[in-house]
């Protein structure tokens, strides 16, 4: 997806001799808990209304609603808002979230549905490449029950071929009670139609306004401070927001990148950076990703790139990730600060989280510490590309 850029850093005005900024030790939740949806008032209620509506006698069962938009626009975030809504939980007998991604592996998706419906089901103990028995189990588990199922991040390089793969799922899912709902997130409207959405149940997500992108940036950049303390930076911040092309993910990345910058000349330098002129498939995301990536130390880069060993949408355990980093020898011990290896690894995790390289954090209910996270699929693609350039770092 991304073309190689790391060997051309001088062209982008990146100082190769500069030292990466050290992150002040902050509680991660205060840095990254800014996933509240802004600028989605026109969309926020649409999925809920469709999910909770009574429907007509002629309505197909299950009804398929699709959220459509480019990568980084906030489809999954909006879907999660509906999925986690307390009214939804009480309205349906069963609620299931399944990440599909590319390539579509039918048996994996079927098993993921079973896992959510019955985590201890006998079929989960065995490896199988035969779809039909798994879908029989799905039919039995949802029969006469009103379910809400999210298929997140559905792709189709060949609509006809993928449509044939999905047909057995569509048939199995008709066994649910009337009023069951499926919510699909995808970048392609043809995929939404393939999955069974009608035009009236396709919600196309538009880009955020500059004001909304600026709101996201300043929430992350200034954390507990107010913009009134940095009024001189607001005009520059709005220019940065304009460069996000209305993408929430781009705004989050820029917010993380700017969080330790308080001088006007620092903001001006970022605005003048040649990275903004790059063309990329995910318009508006390559510049913010490269800015954030190049600000990492070599050790932090290695820790970030290590995360490609996990599949897309994998729930990454924070403690296990840190153990992996230490076992790989990626952690630089800071003798001047008298900090042990695990403490340094924690700081690396915090910095990557602050830069929005991680998302979907789950906290410990007792102490509020982050237990797990995921990577956005675009960030995962970016990391995979940058692993090819790691030898040039």
Could you write a compact summary of the structure shown?
The protein is of the alpha/beta class. The chain has helices at 28-32, 41-52, 75-83, 86-91, 106-117, 131-142, 159-172, 189-194, 210-222, 234-242, 248-257, 264-271, 286-294, 298-306, 318-327, 341-354, 377-387, and strands spanning 63-68, 94-99, 147-154, 181-186, 202-204, 316-317, 359-363, 370-374.
Walk me through what this model shows.
The protein folds into 2 domains: 217 residues, no CATH class; 164 residues, P-loop containing nucleotide triphosphate hydrolases (Rossmann fold). The strands form 2 sheets. Strands 2-3-4-1-5 form a 5-stranded parallel sheet. Strands 6-8-7 form a 3-stranded antiparallel sheet. α2 packs across α3. The chain is of the alpha/beta class and 393 residues long. The two termini are 20 Å apart.
SSE layout and pairings?
Elements: H1 28-32, H2 41-52, E1 63-68, H3 75-83, H4 86-91, E2 94-99, H5 106-117, H6 131-142, E3 147-154, H7 159-172, E4 181-186, H8 189-194, E5 202-204, H9 210-222, H10 234-242, H11 248-257, H12 264-271, H13 286-294, H14 298-306, E6 316-317, H15 318-327, H16 341-354, E7 359-363, E8 370-374, H17 377-387
Parallel strand pairs: 1-4, 1-5, 2-3, 3-4
Antiparallel strand pairs: 6-8, 7-8
Count of runs of 4 or more consecutive helical residues: 17
Strand order of the largest sheet: 2-3-4-1-5
Query: What are the low-pLDDT stretches, counting only 5+ consecutive residues below 50?
Result: 4-8, 10-19, 23-35
Q: Got a strand count?
A: 8
From the helix content, strand content and strand pairing, which structural class follows?
alpha/beta
Q: What's the structural domain tally?
A: 2
* Share of residues in helices: 40-55%
Shape: globular
Order of helices and strands: HHEHHEHHEHEHEHHHHHHEHHEEH
What integer is the average pLDDT? 85
Radius of gyration using CA atoms only: 22 Å
**Which percent band covers the strand fraction?**
5-15%
What does the largest sheet look like?
A: 5 strands, parallel
Spatial separation of the terminal alpha carbons: 20 Å
């Amino acid at each position: 997806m991304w073309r190689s850029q790391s060997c051309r850093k001088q062209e982008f005005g990146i100082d190769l001799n500069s030292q990466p900024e050290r992150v002040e030790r902050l509680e991660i939740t205060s840095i990254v808990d800014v996933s509240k949806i802004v600028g989605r008032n026109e969309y926020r209620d649409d999925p809920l209304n469709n999910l909770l509506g009574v429907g007509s006698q002629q309505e197909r069962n299950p009804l398929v609603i699709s959220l459509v938009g480019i990568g980084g626009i906030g489809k999954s975030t909006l879907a999660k808002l509906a999925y986690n809504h307390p009214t939804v939980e009480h309205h349906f007998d069963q609620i299931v979230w399944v990440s599909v991604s590319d390539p579509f592996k039918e048996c994996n998706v079927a098993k993921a549905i079973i896992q959510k419906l019955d985590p201890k089901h006998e079929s989960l103990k065995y490896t199988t490449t035969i779809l039909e028995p798994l879908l029989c189990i799905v039919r039995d588990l949802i029969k006469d029950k009103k379910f809400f199922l999210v298929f997140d991040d559905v792709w189709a390089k060949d609509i006809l071929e993928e449509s044939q793969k999905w047909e057995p799922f569509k048939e199995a899912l008709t066994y649910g009670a009337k009023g069951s709902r499926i919510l699909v997130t995808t970048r392609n409207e043809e995929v939404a139609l393939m999955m069974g959405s009608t035009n009236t149940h396709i919600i196309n997500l538009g880009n955020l306004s500059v004001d909304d992108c600026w709101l996201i940036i300043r929430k992350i950049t200034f954390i507990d401070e107010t913009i009134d303390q940095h009024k001189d930076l607001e005009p520059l911040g709005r220019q940065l927001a304009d460069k996000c092309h209305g993408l929430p993910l781009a705004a989050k990345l820029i917010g993380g990148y700017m969080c330790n910058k308080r001088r006007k000349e620092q903001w001006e330098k970022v605005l003048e950076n040649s990275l903004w002129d790059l063309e990329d498939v995910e318009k508006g995301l390559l510049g913010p990703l490269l800015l954030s990536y190049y600000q990492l130390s070599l050790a932090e880069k290695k820790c970030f790139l290590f995360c490609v060993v996990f599949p897309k949408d994998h729930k990454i355990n924070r403690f296990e990730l840190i153990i992996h980093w230490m076992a790989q020898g990626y952690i630089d011990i800071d003798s001047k600060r008298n900090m042990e290896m695990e403490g340094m690894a924690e700081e690396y995790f915090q910095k990557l989280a602050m830069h929005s390289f991680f998302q979907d954090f789950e906290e410990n209910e007792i102490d509020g510490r982050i237990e797990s996270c995921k990577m956005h699929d675009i960030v995962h693609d970016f990391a995979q590309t940058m692993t090819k350039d790691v030898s040039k770092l």
